[in-house]
């Protein structure tokens, strides 16, 4: 958290979108830090918000990288089946190294999230960009996605993560 917080502050200023850090809490992905952009109109998030596993970019990211038992337990609470479509979405998140939510939980709001891994290859937090869909670049290879991947990859390496030890490549 100490290393990630200044990074999201810088990203919010540079990218002009709300940035958030989520960690895995006892009820699922939980927002623990928020950095607001300088623009007068932006999407606001609250610390302590628990994110849906299947309705948010942070949720999809954690669902793809947390132990299956923990994910299935929360899915049951959300009333979501772990069906073929769910498994395909998780595979795409792992393959891309990012997750995306376009108008899922709230119409007009989109997000992209990138994972941060520790030295053991465990996902420890997500860095998430959130914004109004009309002005939010949701492309997998867009400038926003690349900035998220670069920042998350750099932070992961600072935590001792090595790309060859992980299930996805972030380089």
Commentary on this structure:
By secondary structure, the protein is an alpha+beta fold. It has a single domain (4-165), classed as Beta-Lactamase (2-Layer Sandwich), CATH 3.30.450. Helices cover 36% and strands 23% of the residues. The chain has helices spanning 4-15, 57-65, 68-78, 84-96, 143-158; strands at 18-25, 28-35, 99-102, 109-117, 123-132. The chain has a five-stranded antiparallel beta sheet with strand order 2-1-5-4-3. Strand 1 and strand 2 form a beta hairpin. Helix 1 (4-15) runs antiparallel to helix 5 and helix 2 (57-65) packs across helix 4. It is globular, with a radius of gyration of 15 Å. It starts with a helix and ends in a 13-residue tail after the last helix.
Quick structural overview:
This protein is α+β, with helices and mostly antiparallel strands and 171 residues long.
Q: What topology does this entry show?
A:
Elements: H1 4-15, E1 18-25, E2 28-35, H2 57-65, H3 68-78, H4 84-96, E3 99-102, E4 109-117, E5 123-132, H5 143-158
Antiparallel strand pairs: 1-2, 1-5, 3-4, 4-5
């Amino acid at each position: 958290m100490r290393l990630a917080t200044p990074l999201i502050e810088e990203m919010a200023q540079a990218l002009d979108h709300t940035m958030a850090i989520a960690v895995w809490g006892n009820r699922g992905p939980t927002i623990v830090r928020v950095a607001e952009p300088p623009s007068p109109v932006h999407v606001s998030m609250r610390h302590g918000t628990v994110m849906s596993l299947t309705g948010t970019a942070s949720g999809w990211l954690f669902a793809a990288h947390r132990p299956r038992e923990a994910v299935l337990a929360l899915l049951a609470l959300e009333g979501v089946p772990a069906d073929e479509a769910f498994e395909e979405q998780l595979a795409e998140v792992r393959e891309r190294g990012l997750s995306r939510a376009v108008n899922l939980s709230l119409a007009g709001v989109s997000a992209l999230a990138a994972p941060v891994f520790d030295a053991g290859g465990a996902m420890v937090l997500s860095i998430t960009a959130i914004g109004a869909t009309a002005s939010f670049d949701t492309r997998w290879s867009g400038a926003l996605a690349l900035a998220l991947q670069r920042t998350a990859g750099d932070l992961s390496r600072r935590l001792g993560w090595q790309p060859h030890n992980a299930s996805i490549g972030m380089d």
